[in-house]
Specification:
The complex is a heterodimer of chains A (557) and B (346). Chain A is an alpha+beta fold. Chain A contains 15 helices and 25 strands. Chain B has 346 residues and is mostly helical. The interface between A and B is medium-sized, with 34 and 35 residues.
Chain lengths: 557, 346
Amino acid sequence: MRPTAVVRASVVGDDGKTASFGHSRSGNTLATHPTHPWGTLVDVDVPVDPDAPPTGVDPGAPAWPSYDPAPFFDELVGPTGQPRPSAEELWTHLAGLGPTALAERQLAADREIRAIGVTFTVYNEGVGVDRPWPFDIIPRIIPRDQWKVIEAGLVQRLSALNLFIDDCYHDQRAVSEGVVPADLVTGSPNFRRECVGVDPPGGIWAHICGSDLIRDDEGFWYVLEDNLRVPSGVSYLLENRMVTKHIFPEMFRHYSIEPVDPYVGRLAGTLASVSPSTGDPTIVVLTPGIHNSAYFEHAFLAQQLGVELVEGSDLVVLDDDCVYARTIDGLEQVDVIYRRVDDVYLDPEVFRANSLLGVPGLMRSWKAGRVALVNAPGAGIADDKKVYSYVPDIIRFYLDEEPVLWTIPTYRCSDPDSRAHVLANLPELVVKPANESGGYGVLVGSQASADELATAAKEIGDDPNRWVAQPIIKLSTAPTLCDNVIAPRHVDLRPFTLMGPDGAYVTRGGLTRVARREGSLVVNSSQGGGSKDTWVVDAEGFNPFEEQPRADGANGL
Amino acid sequence: MTEPEDQDEVPEHEEGGGTMLLARMAEAVYWAGRHLERAEGTARIVQVHTDAHVDMPVGEDVGWEPLLAIAGVDSEFAERYHAAEDPDDVRAAEKDVIEFLLHGEGNDSSILASLTAARENLRTARPVVPREAWEACNNLWLNCNDHLVETHSREGRVQWLRRVITGCQCIHGILLGTMSRDEAMSFLVLGQNIERADLTTRVLDVRSDSLHLPGADDPYDVVHWMAVLRSLAAYQPFRRAMPARPQGGSTLRFLLQDDRFPRAVGACLTEARAQLKSLPHAERTMEACQNASMVVASASVARLAVGGLREFLEDVQLALVEIHERVDDTYFRPNFVGWEPAAATR
């Protein structure tokens, strides 16, 4: 569908009260969350000439699907309106099906998702409502050669971040050698003094990372966020594939699609590899409970792993510092806890005393090496907007390598040259307070009034340390079924990376989230966002990594 | 009928095995078993009562109140519907009773409430039950909600009740065919059989009022007894086991003491004992279970048929409550004092 008016990318914050999916900070109740793509304050005014002839449409071709993603980069369709080489089979197939058959398949998918009970919970005025997981049947395709680069980049990034976290709680070499300022570590609200000196197995703190990747209007990939606390979404990734196999079984003959199922086995292996005991480890998943918005995923993972799903009240720490589960056969020792409870709720003896979700004594047990916590407490120190801007330097410092994946250029206003650039280009930038979590004080240059710009400029001048700025990224689109029409909608991608002492693993593809409203950048499911199956396929085609100069400009500002 | 076996004394429970079952999960599967059984049982009873009702001559029928009594919700029903009752017709209206039993507000034992509770419990217990079983239960619950409005007509109601019965059977089938015979399965089957035994005694209890026991030659006596058997899915098994004309004594003996028909009280208790053998710390519950089996097995059906059936069934129900309470005490609300941490010694 060709937009005939100004496309205004909407700006909607990630409301912590209603956020259900992917919101890794359950303690936050924030109006906006500037680091998520769906919460990133981005505004794109795109003038579109309503009289321009449609491009790339073969006059002999069927009228459906007519599709024009311009001016954005589209995942399946090239700038000429023709499918990218990797998407040709799929596109031809979709065209052959026609709108009615496609709508029927979407209905079948919706029915299946409802029947198998894939839900997410939305909270509205304190009442949780289970909603069927929103799923768009048109998959997104990523060629394998491109994926290999992303995979290497994600492993590199998580390796460096783990070294950084371990360093934060030990010698803080990164500080003493001038890579990051001391305040970035000890001044962070995510720095947990209780973790200083602790040595988790293999020095791994963040075993599971859900990264948010986006692409710009040229198709270049960026990491937007490293979610290192309790990232969600992997269950939906796995379920989306299952549903797609039932909805488009014929496509699996045309494509050699990398399977996603091995994730569960890899997760089990990663969890077992950090067990403090020598025998068969007893592993559990710790959930805040059935009312948590991600409960579906917690139960799904426990079921897939074949382990118990425990709540805080099911566990007890005895005088021997060991953790025990209350079973029908008395207390049984637990070796590894895949916790889906935030740090501050983990142990009322150490963190929030009024937390009912945690287990008194859990931190004591972890520090004594009696139980493994995945991810380790304190790992969130590296999941922080301020740290984000230093990740390229962190990679260079610990690994002596150039970053494979781009970080969005982030201007730190404490630097005089950067500050001058920011002040001179405010209308084209997103300005964010560096020290605050949440969306407080975020200013979108292109949307701000002259007064607001002047106020921001003054605030930056008064206290430059507080501010960072980023360019506005025009997110890529993917063909999405909207009211029986295939239309371009903005997407992001959340792959999951596992890291243990024995090695790393990246999901093949990830969870593609899609903003279903036209022009919207909000992919959050609680706000009308949907999801797509993501196929990593053996196909050639445009590879941005061949054109994307590595790391240049990634943070060199 | 058989006496409780002596080998019950020796539990077969094996220690360890790599899996553990949380007390909370055990409680969830136990209740899932009970609620599924209650939903299916109530559906059968309503279905059969409707069929029997149309057989009766006008004015001779027993009305719809017995259904409320079997479900044990007479007082809840009266609270809700009494005020609205037509003073000329003191008997509860079919429409009200059916609505109350199927999905009435204020009826925690309604079919829909039971399915909802079963679904919630299976949702909690997802990690320990087969994925397909949860999906089948979720699907049944969704379907029953989607088609609820159709139950206003008798035809729609028949379809809806059939959906419930086959849906529950489907879930049982999945569990039998795909679930490991582990501790979680034991709790599920335990819950199922305690509920079944309870339901059978309640059907007998309420029907005994309207039943003419041996000696009478009421032509509708047979219809009554056939309805009793059918509402427990027992008609055909009874006929095969006791090819006599259904009548009070033989029917009672079959539904109480048969050891092969899975809805007979005796068979339910045998199954419960079999499950307890594979559970740890089962001594007290096993004792209660053996006691209940003894009460049932030692009853003289010939004497009960003449009198004292109601008192006897009350004893059986109390024995079932005792089993439930000991299960609850031992496994769901365990006081860990004196329990050795199972894995602490390794």
